[in-house]
Amino acid sequence: MSAARVRERLLRRGFPAVVVDDALARLAAAGAVDDCRAALAAARTLVSVRQRGRHRVGRELERLGFGREEAAAALESALAEVDEQAVIDRLVRARLGGRQALDDAAGYRRVFSALLRRGFPADRIRIALRPYWDRRASEPDDV
Fold first, then answer.
1. Confidence band (pLDDT; 50, 70, 90) for 141?
2. Integer Cα distance of 18 and 23 in angstroms
3. Cα separation of 90 and 87, whole Å?
């Protein structure tokens, strides 16, 4: 948990700001509250376990109270450990449920939108969907 989140929760429970700041300073000095370590753990979980893309992970880390620099560093470190394109490919296969092709533009848009909501970049989604798009049908409108 980020120091900002701990601070927010303690203040919400009625602790005085002076006491909260003192406690956070002691916890940080002892290494119990470390925003860099916590941001990296959260980023790894979001990327590896929850299978979220870079855009969504960045937003989630900021929502969890981590600063932009900490969130960006944690995100890059977590993404360095995972092949993002392989994750997208795996999610596409799961969404298709064994089908070998996307038959219509509506199906293409549904899968594309689902992956976009997970936070993956549009260009990488297109690369993953290309083998499944039925070339006999007209190309889908850019989503």
1. low
2. 9
3. 5
Residue 44 lies in a domain: yes
What is this structure's pTM?
A: 0.78
Residue 60 within a domain: yes
How many CB atoms are located within 10 Å of the residue 112 CB?
A: 23
**Domain around 118:** 84-132
pLDDT in tens, 45-96: 999 999 999 999 999 999 998 999 999 999 999 999 999 999 999 999 999 9
Spatial neighbors of 15 by CB under 8 A, at least 6 apart, are 23
H-state helical runs in the chain: 3-12, 17-30, 35-44, 54-63, 68-80, 84-96, 105-117, 122-129
